[in-house]
Design brief:
7-stranded mixed sheet; single chain
């Protein structure tokens, strides 16, 4: 990452030093996951689409502890593996929008709320902001090479309402709370970095 881009990390100290935690990362570039994995002060286990586990990437992704998920179904194996990361006190990385897009947290899926409410793990919002200097991009899904990429960690928060409910209504309410916190963090990160 340091050879191809100029990463700058802000607020990494906000990640709790131990215990389970969920990193909720915006997703607008192909490098968002690898950037967070490489720059986080703790090892991160992302939910990664099964299509990425091909060729030499398959054993590499498995070796660094990434969780393969089939996005076309409710992948119970991946859900169990992700909850296992949290039960073991690890760090689970999630793209709450489910796929790469604008990276603005505008449309969240319920997965993040499910993991946060079910495990009780705090959520740390993460904004990955690529270069916006107007240079042409060789690959549209990547920030310009040698461009600055900011990774901004926010304050940890609890997604649940404290009563431990795991009903559909509780998850919907948690999703609304999460979206407000993630959107506020992204706005703060943009002001902080001038993006």
């Amino acid at each position: 990452m340091n050879g191809l881009w100029k990463p700058r990390v802000l607020g990494a100290w906000r990640i709790p030093g131990s215990g389970p935690v969920i990193l909720a990362v915006n997703h607008s570039h192909n490098i968002d996951g690898p950037m967070v994995i490489g720059l986080s002060p703790r090892p991160v286990h992302f939910l990664v689409k099964k299509e990425a586990f091909v060729g030499p990437l398959d054993p590499f992704l498995r070796a660094i502890g990434q969780v393969k998920v089939d996005r076309s179904v409710a992948d119970r194996g991946a859900i169990g593996d992700a909850l296992g990361v949290l039960r073991a006190g690890g760090v689970l990385g999630i793209f709450p929008e489910g796929t790469r897009g604008e990276g603005d947290f505008a449309s969240l899926r319920a997965g993040l709320a499910y993991f946060a409410v079910r495990s009780g793990a705090p959520v740390v919002p993460v904004a990955v902001l690529g270069s916006t200097d107007g240079r042409s991009r060789l690959i549209p899904a990547l920030p310009p090479l040698r461009g600055r990429v900011d990774v901004v960690f926010g304050d940890a928060f609890e997604a649940g309402d404290g009563d431990g409910r795991r009903t559909r209504r509780a998850l919907d309410e948690a999703t609304v709370r999460i979206q407000k916190r993630l959107t506020a963090h992204l706005e703060h990160a943009r002001r902080l970095t001038g993006r």
